[in-house]
Amino acid sequence: IRRGSRCSTAKAFLRPARHRKNLHIALNSHVTRLLINPATMKAFGVEFIRNGRKQVVFARKEIILSAGAINSPQILMLSGIGPKEHLSQIGIPTLKNLRVGENLQDHVGMGGLTFLVDKPISIVQDRFQVFPMMMEYVIHGKGPMTTLGGVEGLGFVNTPLGNRSWPDIQFHMAPASVNSDAGKKVKHVLGLTDTLYNAVYKPISNRDAWTIMPLLLRPKSRGYIKLRSKSPFQYPIINANYFDDPFDIQTLVEGAKMALKVSKSKVFKQFGSKLHTIPFPNCRHVPYGSDAYWECHIRT
């Protein structure tokens, strides 16, 4: 947040520091590997491709690898740090045999919980006109563009299955749902089939709605990152391994039930909030609202 508005990381951190003499930002650069002394196991440089040319920078003090949960292990393995058996299969000499990439965790969420309201307060495609909204935001600082990426409410809760010392479910609350754009974009972003969308969400296209998305904060399932080849330009193999541990799905089911309790609270009654109860076609074999149904919904 910058001056009351959402802004990019570049504006928040890089722009104020862009004139520092010791800050150099290399655009159009792709790191290929770290340079590591095999005798001391100390990283002393970074090799990268910039505008089609291989370049190297050397470090006087230290190298901070900050390429994210996917690319950090990829770069380490390309540099020879990782599981020896896997690196040998790829043809990369192993400098250090470590279980790099074997502890992938993700806070998987449950989408699709939709609550209809009887007042025009949500974001729907029929009212979504870019220019008027932009002018309302620029001139008055109001309107749909004031929302932080669509998420207007956050919550952290403890399910009965978790440790009371910390929350195990996070809620994202948004003034829209899967139906809000009549299937133009959200459906495709979420990868919903025509069968599912047409049965569940098409009947309420462009209706005012809101949603709660429960997210798993402390998953027990572990996925992995592996190299596809020695090429740093090939995307790595990503296996999130969602719900490998049954405890995770049980926790999300509890999160769904707590989300329903939140939706029934007094503050939402003024908007006539009601759960949209058309069941998923592939989940009709179990009673709607049962634990078995929510598990089916989550897995779908």
From TrEMBL:
It comes from the Eukaryota. GO terms for molecular function: flavin adenine dinucleotide binding; oxidoreductase activity, acting on CH-OH group of donors. Coiled coil: none annotated. Residues 68-82 form the Glucose-methanol-choline oxidoreductase N-terminal domain. Belongs to the GMC oxidoreductase family. This is Putative glucose dehydrogenase. It comes from Drilonius sp. INB129.
